[in-house]
């Protein structure tokens, strides 16, 4: 019997896409034809799209900026600083600082237009943990970076009887990486589609993909899974 398989689309949102995204992943748009093909050419048991939805550092509706926004700390994006560890007074964790991105209610937060049109009615959207707590970043679609909060993704996958998760999206070295590792840890057979991921730091891609294999992920091509 074929195992039940989910396609997991990680953060394919306007802010991660060139040319206008505030945190555009180089060559991020190159994944789109592959993603569209995966959606069109196979009947998936489940399609899940994760979405970063951050709170705003400059908007009156939200009193505090997100801990991952450089603007919150009046610091330079793409630098890293220690920030308080949750539930551990006096302890810190390193946080990479990003340009403001995927602020809720903005165009940058929305799924890429072509993808939006191709997501069927049954697709499940998983809001990343980021939207619920300004004090912690959330790369994995399963949980925040300090594992204090889990999204409904694990319940959604188990509820649908999924055993295999096929991962595509952005970015290889952050949200794809954390999501794929968590998927392995939770015991899913985890396939990462090479043509359908791109990294913030393209020079790190080979190393990250090797690390994912060490965790038990399989690297596959679109052809292998359609
Ligand atoms: C991501 C950096 C910051 C990602 C999200 O989706 O990979 N990267 N926030």
From TrEMBL:
<dbReference type="InterPro" id="IPR036380">
    <property type="entry name" value="Isochorismatase-like_sf"/>
</dbReference>
<protein>
    <recommendedName>
        <fullName>nicotinamidase</fullName>
        <ecNumber>3.5.1.19</ecNumber>
    </recommendedName>
</protein>
<keyword id="KW-0479">Metal-binding</keyword>
<dbReference type="GO" id="GO:0008936">
    <property type="term" value="F:nicotinamidase activity"/>
</dbReference>
<dbReference type="GO" id="GO:0019363">
    <property type="term" value="P:pyridine nucleotide biosynthetic process"/>
</dbReference>
<comment type="pathway">
    <text>Cofactor biosynthesis; nicotinate biosynthesis; nicotinate from nicotinamide: step 1/1.</text>
</comment>
<keyword id="KW-0378">Hydrolase</keyword>
<dbReference type="Pfam" id="PF00857">
    <property type="entry name" value="Isochorismatase"/>
</dbReference>
<comment type="similarity">
    <text>Belongs to the isochorismatase family.</text>
</comment>
<feature type="domain" description="Isochorismatase-like">
    <location>
        <begin position="5"/>
        <end position="224"/>
    </location>
</feature>
<keyword id="KW-0662">Pyridine nucleotide biosynthesis</keyword>
<dbReference type="InterPro" id="IPR052347">
    <property type="entry name" value="Isochorismatase_Nicotinamidase"/>
</dbReference>
<dbReference type="GO" id="GO:0046872">
    <property type="term" value="F:metal ion binding"/>
</dbReference>
<dbReference type="InterPro" id="IPR000868">
    <property type="entry name" value="Isochorismatase-like_dom"/>
</dbReference>
